[in-house]
Amino acid sequence: MIYIDEEFCKGCRICSEFCPTGVLGVSTTLNSKGYYPPVVEQAYECHGCRLCELLCPEFAIFIVNEWLDEQAG
User: Fold this and answer.
1) Cα–Cα distance, 18 to 3 (Å, whole number)
2) What's the CATH fold of domain 2-72?
3) Does the pTM of the predicted model rise above 0.85?
4) How far apart, in Å, are the Cα atoms of 42 and each of 1, 10, 19, 23, 48?
5) CA–CA distance, 62 with 17 (Å, rounded to integer)
6) Is residue 2 packed enough to be buried (19+ CB in 10 Å), middle (13-18) or exposed (0-12)?
7) Under DSSP, is residue 47 helix (H, G, I), strand (E, B) or coil?
8) How far apart are CA 50 and CA 53, in angstroms?
9) Looking at residue 67, what is its pLDDT?
10) Would you say residue 7 has pLDDT above 60?
11) Domains of the chain by residue range
12) Neighbour count for residue 13 (Cβ, 10 Å)
């Protein structure tokens, strides 16, 4: 699962530009700060590489691997 905190986002688009599978796109609506946050367009294509999470300078994205969470719990 990809979680995006739209209010932390400053619209740099690093996440969508560097996503190797093209999962993230750019929203057509502004957040409260006036930036276009990313949106998950093809969640099923996400391989969980966490590159978007690692590159986000605002810590606005985080990935939760449901399978790992089930195994730990």
Assistant:
1) 17
2) Alpha-Beta Plaits (3.30.70)
3) no
4) 11, 22, 11, 5, 13
5) 16
6) buried
7) coil
8) 5
9) 57
10) yes
11) 2-72
12) 16
Helix intervals (H) in the chain: 14-18, 51-55, 66-72
Residue 56 burial (CB count, 10 A): 20
Q: Which of 61, 26, 56, 52 is nearest to 41 (CA)?
A: 26
Backbone angles phi, psi at 55, to 5 degrees: -90, -15
Length of the chain in terms of residues written: 73
Contact 36, 27 (CB under 8 A): yes
Q: Which tens digit of pLDDT belongs to each residue from 13-60?
A: 999 999 999 999 999 999 999 999 999 998 899 988 999 999 999 999
DSSP H/E element including 25: strand 24-26
